Input
Amino acid sequence: MFDLEASYEMFLGILGVLPETLLIAITILVLSTLLGVVLALIQQYKIPVLDQLTKLFKLFLRGTPMVVFLYLMYYALPAIGQFIVTLLGIDYNMNNMSPLVILIVTVSLTLSAFQSEIIRGSFLAVDPGQIEAAQSLGYSFSQTFTRIVAPQAFVHAIPDFANSFTVAIKATSLGFLITVIDIFAQAKIMAAQNFRFVEAFLMVALIYWGIGILITKFADRYENDVRIK
Amino acid sequence: MTMETGMQELLMEFLKTLPINIIIIILSAALGLLFAVLLTFVRLKRIPVISQLADLYVSFARSVPGLILLFIAYFGIPKVLPLIGLGTYDISPMHAAIISMGFYHSGYISEVFRPAYLAVEKSQHEAADSLGYTPMQKFFRIILPQMVPVALPGYGNALVYLIHDTSLIFAIGIVDIMGTAELSISRSYGTNQILIYFIIALMFSAMCFTTDGLVRKLEKRVAIR
Output
């Protein structure tokens, strides 16, 4: 009933797509963190129009499930892209936007809302006395930021960033719905050939589980190394 | 003219299928809550084998994406049922959705309840014991009321994430609002997709914010003055 040999075959086949999936997740993490920093700074310094837009953006993302946003972007991004491209006068057909790009942009946008919250929180966690001391010692703004605030904020944010990475990896499974081949899509494709659906999905679940455990272990270890007791 | 009536019909379809979403959310939340209580109890009591299994369960439920949990439940349960002698018919997608979403949710909120329990000071336990409270009395009269304010924000968050994950149930064939949207779009050869999905986004947002609002009200009521 439970076919072990087919399971093993499929496990290997699914693993083949894993590096691409991880690459997608890392790209998403990097992009969302960059955007998150921008959003956090906008909120911190209360820049007039952008602050309200950021709040609206976050509100929308808090209530909208990722899959709904993904379908929305699947139809909206090519249209928006086409609009920008015709505005700039470049002769390029944006209607063939790759689903992979749509996936990465959508998940990065969604995750950036969460990342900006994490980053804001981690900055607030740095003792204000540190900033005062740095300023009284004559540090410039960028020096205080890069040498004093950022390292301490980063340590505080590590557990949440590990969680964000897990969210990014889980989000890549949605790519299956818009034809991006991630490990879940690969599982379904292989299962369709030999009808061993349960084995395929169990294998891919094991892989996700393994990744989740590894990430937590690494994040814990890294946090322990970096945190000053 | 036709677009307007088409949209009106579509909105009526949405309202007709929205109860499906709501039922699945409520049932998954209830199932998840019940099972999470059991889970957290087992994880806190440190029973030799079962506690480790519970920890593994929670780790699994939190690492695996909702889409895969849905598919495993939908395809896997019919294969498991014959083993316990319950027949070989297929499981309905609604049941599979409730079971898998409840499973995922229980893992999530067990990780909210556990720190909430540990947040209550040991002195409370000792004082209750020294006053002769039975374990049941101690839990319901002393510990639980102190756990609730700590657990509520996390629980509210978990409910919002549950609502987000239930948006995936259309993938195993349930015709909820997402399913209706997809059917309608394929019927009309793709017009207004952006508007339709925007409306769905608003509907899910409405559900999330209502839930969030209710939890916030509850938080205010149980807040330690």
About this structure: Chain A touches chain B at residues 1-2, 60, 62-69, 71-72, 75-76, 79, 166, 169-171, 173-174, 176-177, 184, 188, 197-198, 201-202, 204-205, 208-209, 211-213 (CB under 8 Å). Chain A has a mean pLDDT of 84. The CA atoms of residues 43 and 55 of chain A lie 8 Å apart.
